[in-house]
Design a protein that fits this description.
Layout lengths: L4 E8 L3 H18 L3 E3 L6 E10 L1 H12 L6 E11 L7 E8 L1 H14 L15 E7 L5 H9 L4 E7 L1 E8 L6 E9 L2
Antiparallel strand pairs: 1-3, 1-8, 2-6, 4-5, 4-7, 5-6, 8-9
Helix pairs in contact: 1-4
Length: about 190
Amino acid sequence: MSETIRSFIAVEIENKEVLNKIIRVRDQIYSVAGDNIKPVEDENIHITIRFLGEIDQYTLNEMKKVLDQINMNRFFIHVKGLGGFPNLSRPRVLWVGVVEGSDELIKIRRFIDEKSRGLRIFEDQHQFHPHITIARVKTSIPSKASQILVSYVDEDFGFSEVTKIVLKKSVLTPRGPIYSDLHVKQLI
């Protein structure tokens, strides 16, 4: 049996000012919610385009080829708003939204899905909504933290240029996942 690699395709938040603003908001929520949430580590903040699951070396190589076929110009995303899945009143996941550039991200996702048909990757049944996960909720959010969440619903985090799409490896550890780049596709 061949070794598998837990992997996903992502876009990173390349504008450090935008990233730092996201981190500050996440930290403010964590300072009140405490152990009720599991914040995403600073270095792991990204937009997941496509989770691939546990894939073998053949599939990994094929996914690299798929990424290399993407022929797109660089573009900007506008990072704005804070929300939760399934909703903000009882969230399981806290996220920051993408209001501009989401069409381009969806186009990339569709291209990847189309070109990877027949490969043994995780079958994602959910509709793709570009977002940046900042925390996972373990239990429930204290009311004081809920007030903070509501105050950031319309927060404007700014614009970040998307210059690359990254195939990442994810190693799960007791302290949280460790991500590393397996392949980078630079946009034009």
